Amino acid sequence: MGEHPQPRLDVAPGPWDAWVAAHPQAHILQTTPWGILKAAYGWEAQRVALPEGPAAAQILYRRLPGGMGCLAYTPRGPLADWDDTATTTALVRRLAETARARGAIALTVEPDLPDSAHHRQQLAALGLTPSPLDSVQPRRTIVVDISGSEDAILAALKSKTRYNVRLAGRRGVTVRAGQETDMPVFHRLTAATADRDAFGVHEPAYYEQAYRLFVPRDWARLLLAEVEGEAVAALMVFALGRRSWYFYGASGDEHREKMPNYLLQWEAMRWARAQGCSEYDLWGVPDEDEETLEAEFTRRSDGLWGVYRFKRGFGGRLVRTVGAWDLILRPLRYKVYTAAARLRQSSPR
Q1: What angle do CA 247, 253, 258 make, to 5 degrees?
Q2: Is residue 240 part of a domain?
Q3: Residues 271, 175: one domain?
């Protein structure tokens, strides 16, 4: 088979993050702050890079109960030139060796690649198979082009959304950058959203840790929409390289008729554009084709359908990624684990 370069393990955060930020597929989930954030909640991060060739990945590990080993997961990675077969083959082989040495039953990759026959064939050629479990990250999202002028971006919004952005300003909604001392306000709004819309949310400490890890680097911003000094909505927007992501948002029950969420999203896009981003990812809509989405969004509010109604107004293109793929390392344990996981997913909640 020939010799392959040995991986560099646990690459230092500074060089790693600089490399990730400069990569064409740069993603915030492949940065060391994301690994640190997940490490506070049961995961362990490891960074693996080939000495030759621009290919690397951050792996997150989570122990399984009963001494079964662990899960190895690469969120929105590996970062590689997927048309460079030799390099991607070498990288996946080294990732698998590294994960196997840690006791992983499988290596799950969830690359940020469009769902296409070509990319599915590439992954299959590397020995990977589609995961029988749900993808961890949203399969489908809306990505807004923010590379043009503000006037051009506004013009691309659906007319009702553009009207609501302007209406919010006329009705006294203002948006400001939040500080760490504003996190209790964010938690209050998050709790209100969870109660009203039955959304799952993280505990307050999670968002506080995310703030401390990303905002001081200018990789994230907390934005608050206020009416007469009262915070009525908030979000956290992230940015790296040319891309930005709307991960966390919340709103209270007061002043909703003033459309604060619309102005809030617009100001998040403006901030991302000021950071040099050309794309704004609204992060998650129902995993249905566009025809189904457009036919059903007016009468459905379950799951992500309610947020699709809101997000579609900002224009953009519907994008579906290739999903999660597994390289099975311990077949028997993998079979037991996936069977149990499928049973949990199918159980009533």
Answers
A1: 85
A2: yes
A3: yes
Residue count of the chain = 349
| pTM for the whole structure | 0.93
Beta strands at 317-320 and 243-251: parallel, antiparallel or unpaired: unpaired
- For residue 185, the SS3 value is helix
Q: Please report, in tens digits, the pLDDT of each residue of the chain (349 residues total).
A: 334 445 566 777 889 999 999 999 999 999 999 999 999 999 999 999 998 668 999 999 999 998 999 999 999 999 999 999 999 999 999 999 999 999 999 999 999 999 999 999 999 999 999 999 999 999 999 999 999 999 999 999 999 999 999 999 999 999 999 999 999 999 999 999 988 877 788 999 999 999 999 999 999 999 999 999 999 999 999 999 999 999 999 999 999 999 999 999 999 999 999 999 999 999 999 999 999 999 999 999 888 898 999 999 999 999 999 999 999 999 999 999 999 888 876 544 3
In a domain, 46, yes or no: yes
Domain that holds residue 15: 8-136+322-346
* Domain match, 200 and 303 both: yes
CA distance linking residue 215 with residue 123, whole number of Å: 35
Tokens of 168: 């919010």
307/208 same-domain check: yes
